[in-house]
Design a protein that fits this description.
Elements (H helix, E strand, L loop, with lengths): L5 E3 L2 E3 L6 E6 L3 E2 L20 E2 L2 H13 L2 E6 L9 H11 L2 E3 L1 E3 L15 H13 L9 E5 L7 H17 L3 E4 L14 H10 L7 E3 L8 H9 L3 E4 L10 H13 L6 E3 L19 H12 L4 H16 L5
Parallel strand pairs: 3-6, 6-7, 8-9, 9-10, 10-11, 11-12, 12-13
Antiparallel strand pairs: 1-2, 4-5
Helix pairs in contact: 1-2, 3-4
Length: about 325
Amino acid sequence: MGVSEVQTVLGPVAPADLGLCLPHEHVWCDQRLAPRGHLFGTARAGDSYMRLDDESAMVEELRAFAARGGGAIVDVTCDGWGRDLEVLARLSHASGVHLIATAGYYIEPCIPWYVDAMSADALADHVTRELEHGVGGRRCGLVKSAIHRARVEGVELKVLRAVARAQRRTGVAITTHTTGGRRQEVPGGNVGPQQLAVLLEEGVAPHRLIVGHVDERPDVDVLDGLAAQGCYVQFDVIGKPHWLLDATRAELVAELVHRGHGERLLLSHDRNRAHEMRFGGGSGYLHLQDEFLPRLRALGLDDALLRTLTVDNPARALTPTPA
């Protein structure tokens, strides 16, 4: 993979060929497999876990996305809870949608036990191999780090440093999960500033960081500050009203555009359960095109700007850049 190409599960593609891209979704996952499930902290019903594991149903979801003009999806499922690049490859081939797989790790309950015994440098070597050589021959296209609590600490801090070192070697983007449990107060709404501080210590350029889940507990001034430093600010639970109403999300996106950050914004849904998909009665991967973009148009964002948000920005974010 050259620095001008984006790595998908079927091979490298030119950034311009991605088309409309959802940069934070799940296509294949099963959170019941989480090795440290006791850290979720509460008893959970079987249907409450993030789980998408019906291959024929997911082919149809992806085909519907393609039929509505969709071109690419980033599956942010990591090692530890059902990531399967061979399944993603079959789904991509059957649907025509470019799928980008993710190295790195999700929150501590989902981090494999082998991570505990590895140093940050050894872990960086492992993550780098998944990016440069692949998992079973299929390569990941970006890396992920996450938090389970209200700060970056413990094994999740080690993972963030390892991810940073792998990023420096490969140039790929780092995407992050930035909010803890609902009962945990995260200063500023998300740990993006904490993550950025660690990444800067490790020499990662801010434009290689995608700060995720900013629309779960948004503080527009914190988001303004992250974008001003060069980070990508990702509204990626669009269509989930238990976090925020889409009307408010749209106003926040428009405000950040008006503050000059249109080229630093990304939009996605974080689909991860059957009831969110079309086969389960939800809107699947179509909510952005069908519901949210019209809200942005009504607030005065023209088609050229919407293309920037959904096509140009993801392509730029996902294109590796030299260290």
